[in-house]
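Problem 3 from the worked examples.
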Amino acid sequence: MSGRTHRVQQHRSALPGVEAMTLFSDHAFPRHAHDELGIGYVLSGAQRSWSVLGQVDAQAGDVIMVNPGEMHDGHPLGGPRRWRIIYFEPSLIEGLLAQEATVKDWTVKPVARDRMLAADVARLFARMDEESLLVCLMRILDLHEVRGKRPAPASPSVARAVRRLDDAPQASHPLAELARHCDVTRFQLLRGFAREVGTTPHAYLLQRRVRLARRLLAAGKAPADAAALSGFSDQSHLTRVFARHYGVTPGRYRAHTGRRVDDSG
C-alpha cells in the first residue's frame, strides 16, 4: 500500500464481541465478507461498493451497513474517504433481539440516507453501550430492512461447493476436485458460482481463510500460527491477503486491537 493514503484507528469497546474502527483511505477493498454485522457512517468523501442489492454509492452523512456473510467491496470516488464502522458478533445481536428477530432472519440495506440514524450511530460509536445499540437496531428494523432472508445459492451444485469450502477453508480445494464433488464441469461450477455468490470459488476460499485467520488473531494466535491454521502457504501470503481485505496487517491487527493503528505498508 506504499504511496497510498491509508490510516486506521482501532477503538476500545466495553461491549464483548465488538470491534470499532475509524478509517481514512483511498484503498480499494476486493470482494470479501465478514462474520459480523457491520454498522457505520461516512464522515467525508464517497465510495462505491457491491452489496446484497448490487452496486451502491455512499457519501458523507450516509449510514453504511453490511450483513454477516454478505459479499461486498469498496472503492473510493474522487479521492480518500473517511468512515467509522463497528462490527458486532451475530450472537450479541441475536441476544439483544431475541424477542424481535435474529440476525439470520433479517437483512439490512447497504446504505441509508437517514440523518436521525446517522446521529444514533455516532452516539453508539461514542458510548458503545447496549442502549445506544438497541436504538440503532430498532430504527434499522423499522426503516432499513430488506424484507426476507438473503438468498442462498439456488443451484444444488453451487450450494454443495459453498458448504464444502465453508466446512474446511484451511484445506486444499482444487477446482477440478470441487467440480467432481458437485457433479458438474469446471466451467459450469465457475459460471454458476460467480453468478450466485458474486466471486470465484478460489476468491471465496481465500476470504473464508482470511476470516478464519482474523478470528484466530483475535483469540491471540501469532500471525505465523494463524497462517498455518487457516490454510495459507506462509505468513507473508496471509499478510498480503489480510491487508488487501481489511486494510491492516495481521500483526498490527493482533497487537493494536483497541489502540491506534497507522498501516501504510
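Problem 4, a separate protein:
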Amino acid sequence: MQSTDHFFFRIGQHDNPIVFPQNASYTTGLLSKDSDGALTVTHKAPGADSFRYSSNWGSNYSDWQTYHGGTTKLTPQPWSGTRRQRWTGDHVIVQYHSKIAGSSNSVQHADLDSKTPPRRFPHLFINGAFNMFGLDGAINNFVKLQALKDGARWTYSVITEWPAQVQINVWGINPDGQPDRTGVLGDVDGDNVLDRISPVALTPVFLNVTDVPPSPHLLWRVSLDDMNLRYELIPVGYRTIQLIIFIIMWVIPLVTSALVVYLYTAS
C-alpha cells in the first residue's frame, strides 16, 4: 500500500502522537536526491523519538539518531555481493522508535524512482529440488515483480514433480557459491503467510506444495504480496499443450531420421 500520509496518530492531549505502524509500510516522496547526488530522506513521522536507516536493504543500518523531523542526508553504506545479487534503483528503509509507544516496529520503505512498483525486497529467488536449491544456475529462478493498480506482486511459475517443497530466498547464491541463509522464507505453520526463521535455527523452512494442479492446468504460480507476506498458489498452464509439444519433439527425430535414410537409399 502506497502512502504519503503520516503513520502516527494522536490520542487525548498527549504532546506526542502514538505510533500506528499498521497504516502503511511504503511511502512515496520519502526519498529524494540532492543536486550533488546525495540521497535525502524527508521525514513524515511526527511522534517518533529516534530513527535509523539502511540504503542497502538491511545489510547495514546507521546508528540511531534523534528525530527532529525535516530532512536527513544519508551517508552511503557499503555493500558487496555477486552481480546477480545487485538491485536496480535507489531504495531506503527507515526505522522509527517511539518512547511513548515503547516500539521500534514502524518501518518505512521508499524508492527514489516514483515509477518503481512498491517493493520491500531487492529481489527474490525461488529454490527447491527442481534447481538443487539454487545451485543449478541453468534454471532461471528469479521471481518477477509485477506492478498492479493496488500495489505489486512477486510471481513465479513452478514446474516440477508434485508434491514439492520450495523456499524463497532474498539474496540467492552468495559469492562463495552457497545459498544465502540470512533471508530464507517459507511457510512453517501452513497459514499461507511466509515466515522468516533465524539463520541458526534448526527448523526447516519450506513452502509445501502438496496438491497437483487441478486439470487442465500444468503448474502452480506463486503470487506473493510483500506488504503482508501473504501468498497464493494459482494453477496455470495447460497439460494438453505440453503433451502435444512432448509428442512432437519425440516424433520429429524419428520421422526426419527415417526420411534421411529413405532419401539416401533411394538415391
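Solution to problem 4. The first strand starts at residue 2 and ends at 3. The helical segments are 239-266.
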